[in-house]
Amino acid sequence: MSDADLEQIRKARLAQLQQQGGGGAGAGEGGQEEQRQQKEAEARQSILAQILLPDAADRLGRIRLVKESRATEIENRLIMLARSGQLRQKVTEEQLKELLNAVAETQEEGKIIVSRRKPGWDDDDDLLNL
What we know:
The protein is mainly alpha-helical. It is 68% helix and 0% strand.
């Protein structure tokens, strides 16, 4: 299939979905919201493709598989740096690792505190004297 054929199929499918969702007002609004989110996601991917080297993009993809929230946070920081003009060249994998370490240091993990009872205060000892 050529690109023109794929584009025609996409347009036909989009028209079909719009006709199906056009009956209810809520469905149309939901479709618009979904389209807006899809456009935002495409814009993010386009920006990231421009500012990341392939190795760094692969690493970010692997991070997304494990922890999507962390990957989204890193992407947001990278996009912010790119928009503010602080990135002079494409981000390498090493630079991405440094950014990950910086983010990890700023995030505080929830700590689990285990409080143990003192040996003399165990209520089960009373059952031994029966």
